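Q: Sequence in, structure out?
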Amino acid sequence: MRGADTVAELVRRQWGDHRIGLRDEHHTLTHHQVAAGAAARAALLVDLMPPLPGGEPHLGILLDNTPEYPLWLSAAALAGAAVAGINPTRRGAELARDIRHTACRVLVTQRAHLPLLDGLPLPGVRILVTDTAAYRELLAPYGSARPGDARLGPVRPDSRFLLSFTSGSTGAPKAALCSQGRLAAAGASLGAHFSVGRDDVHYICMPMFHGNAVIADWAPALVAGAGVALRARFSASRFLSDVRAFEATYFTYVGRAVQYLLATPPTPEDHAHRLRLGFGTEAGAVDAVRFRERFGVPLVEGYGSSEGGASIQWTPDTPAGAVGRAAPTDDLVVVDAETGRECEAARFSPTGRLLNAAEAVGELVNRGRSTFEGYWRNPEAEAARLRRGHHRAEVSGGGWYWTGDLFYRDADGYLYFAGRTDDRLRVDSENLAAAMIEHILARWDRAAGVAVYAIPDPVAGDQVMAALALREGAVFDPAEFTGFLAAQQDLGTKMPPRFVRVMSELPLTATNKVHRVVLRRESFLCEDPVWWRPAPGAPYEPLTPVATAALRAEYARQGREPNS
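A: Exactly. Output:
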């Protein structure tokens, strides 16, 4: 497998390769056709983006995983443009903000997502709707284009290529930058690590607006010349039939997807496929064992953010529960954020329980030269990531890269994930900001106070819990609350709380801040009334002692606690 300096070079290599390169349930394209389609779209893009004072060569992609998504990624690489992956679970003003913040001059979408854009203020944004006759007519004159014919400017390894949204604890999502060179190098590294070859087929069922799919699935396939197979949206019921039909050998996942797959009825054909590897995050040790036993496929956990600031690599000798060790290019340490000193090595009981959490758990920091390339128009966020020791440093002066994640490390250097340093919630591998959900829930006229916080999911990641202090004389009406949530256009699909704790008043710290530590510690195991949704979208109902016991048993089966 031969690497390249840019993604554009990798796309150009597909020209003349008539093996199957890209498939979904409706389309089959050769590698050559992918390169030709990318060239046509690149030529169109150049015509749609004439030079403007202050105009950035940015396009947004608001698509499901259709062939148009990798075709436009490839087109942007050829043209020297940058892509902002737009999250279709965002709503209203927040969705408009994402598109405007990343300075998108063109937005590529599909008819199914047009209702999300109705009424949004998007001045100067040209919208292309891929599944229409008008789009096909617009693209037709560019059918004879060849890769490299049309560019907006020089295409170099440092050319901006991705603006990947990543949420923080407060405020709007940040757009992490990724150059063509960094993505090409990441694809080469993962491809070499997992021995990806030309005969592999990468099944992309995770959404391509996430780095999981683009960096860990599409990029290594592009480097190796492997095939790519797409599912528009993840489907547990279609997973095995897809991987058989596409003869897939590799896929990426998040923990929730693995849980959904394990929930499907077992069949005698569960081992009848070519899959050899799944790579992802937050599967949970118990589910990883179950997955391998049932489907015969090992799941390899990884750690690496869209920012590229730190990377942990799994190896076959990685202990159970650990993520792995630092990548060779990183100098990763676990640091006490208050003092800047390195934390003690973790000590374990004979059963594997961490004995010195207070001394061993700290923030994961990269003291080496990271590949972090910054955030789009957000110097404050960059400065918060890059600090010398435990003091902030000017971005131009470099500094340690602070991941914002808690870890502990054993005496052999293996790293174990322990949570997040702030009030972020990670639901189905999507980061959410508690403050933004609080601001929405605070609109409910019965609420006098709102606190949103993460409690552990039984398998991996978090679930959203909210504590509501009601106005005097008000009572919690589940039907009215559900109607209120449905009416909030900026409430994303992952944001509604699964658990709602009704309180007379919120607990406060000595500085009159909401005491989230207490709320998280008590979880739903409290004396106050708690309402919950047994399944996503289900009506809220009282959390009874019977339901609580069943939930605790579910956590126990996964080796987790609801208030850990």
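The first strand starts at residue 20 and ends at 23.
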